[in-house]
Design a protein that fits this description.
Low-confidence stretches: 1-10
Shape: globular
Oligomer: single chain
Strand content: under 5%
Distance between the termini: 83 Å
Helix content: over 70%
Number of helices: 17
Structural class: mainly alpha
Largest sheet: none
Radius of gyration: 21 Å
Order of helices and strands: HHHHHHHHHHHHHHHHH
């Protein structure tokens, strides 16, 4: 007896509706990323990742566009903010070479680790002092001390924090990173900083990789070279910080399960995408990959993170942010000042 063609193939019946829900938002994110790169090409001082967040915020708050991002596009934009972010973090590892990091010397490495640790602890303490919730304080501390929105996405995944709770920390870290692009070059000359010290300061204190490049290149290639290596050393710390956070969360989940007798599945100590990040760092460090492959990986990573950041930005409602984010903004500015001071002190010791 012939099989009726009306019977769907296994899995296809569920896949098509899901894809139909995601496509509008993903296409919107793709168009926004293209626009961000176009503006970046015309104005290189504006990082494409920062532009992606700004476009997302605009799309969430302009009449007409707001209805689209909140309606049909929302599932795809949420998917981008979560899953494209994780894929981008994996490819971020291709930018980090262990050999370049070790080339800084042990003193510089210890100083960078100390800056990250002090920035993390200090920013968390400041955030709690301004009465931000513990989850928000954790994400802000992670983003400010390590590598901006990428670190926030990683920490949120490790601690199983809701996607909606990452919106405010991403907005704050983007705002302060953008502020650094304008402020640090203005104060460098009055402070009498050399190109090397300015580059090390930028790498040690500015949040996102793109923001570091945009800031450091104003002082020339020497500043840019040391800024990128110092920054990527901070990025490398994403893996151990995520692992420690995962282990802590797992212990807490196990204790809760033992107390109430539940047998819920334990969260992983290190999520798969963090393992992928470490694997990409190892692969880059071998020196086997041709420059063309590394360039292609960097481009794909920028596209993925751009889509993720647009998705996160499109969830920011300025009106509600003004009502609830005043304390958060003050905490972020205080944290930004703290990290800038710590980074400057380390920069003098590294390159002074």
């Amino acid at each position: 007896m012939p099989v009726s063609r009306s019977i769907p193939e296994p899995g296809r019946g569920r896949f098509r509706p899901l894809l139909a829900r995601l496509v509008p938002g993903l296409l919107t994110a793709a168009a926004a990323v293209a626009a961000a790169f176009l503006v970046h090409g015309v104005l290189p001082a504006l990082p494409a990742m920062t532009l992606a967040v700004v476009l997302g915020v605009l799309a969430a708050n302009l009449p007409g566009a707001a209805g689209w991002t909140e309606g049909r596009a929302r599932p795809g934009l949420d998917f981008a903010g979560k899953h494209l972010m994780r894929a981008g973090i994996v490819l971020l590892g291709l930018k980090v070479s262990v050999m370049d990091v070790l080339g800084l010397g042990w003193l510089a490495l210890l100083l960078i680790v100390a800056v990250v640790a002090a920035s993390f602890g200090g920013t968390y303490a400041i955030s709690r002092l301004f009465r931000l919730p513990p989850v928000t304080s954790l994400l802000v501390a992670t983003g400010f001390s390590i590598c901006g929105a990428s670190a926030i996405g990683a920490m949120a995944a490790v601690r199983r924090i809701r996607h909606a709770d990452t919106v405010l920390p991403v907005a704050l870290v983007t705002l302060c990173g953008t502020l650094a692009i304008g402020v640090l070059p203005l104060v460098a000359h009055p402070m009498g900083l050399t190109a090397a010290v300015f580059g090390a300061w930028t790498g040690a204190s500015v949040h996102d990789v793109g923001q570091v490049v945009a800031t450091a290149q104003t002082a020339g290639t020497a500043a840019l070279a040391i800024a990128v290596v110092v920054k990527l050393t901070r990025v490398l710390l994403l893996a151990p910080v995520a692992a420690m956070a995962g282990a802590h969360h797992r212990r807490g989940a196990r204790s809760i399960g033992a107390a109430d007798g539940s047998t819920a599945k334990m969260p992983p100590v290190v999520p798969l995408f963090v393992v992928g990040f470490v694997a990409m760092v190892a692969l880059r460090s071998t020196g086997w990959l041709p420059a063309a492959w590394l360039e292609a990986g960097a481009t794909l990573q920028d596209l993925l993170l751009g889509g993720a950041l647009f998705g996160l930005g499109s969830a920011v409602r300025i009106r509600s942010l003004l009502h609830t984010g005043g304390q958060a903004l003050l905490a972020a500015l205080a944290s930004w000042f703290l990290i800038a001071a710590l980074g400057l002190g380390a920069a003098f010791l590294i390159a002074g």
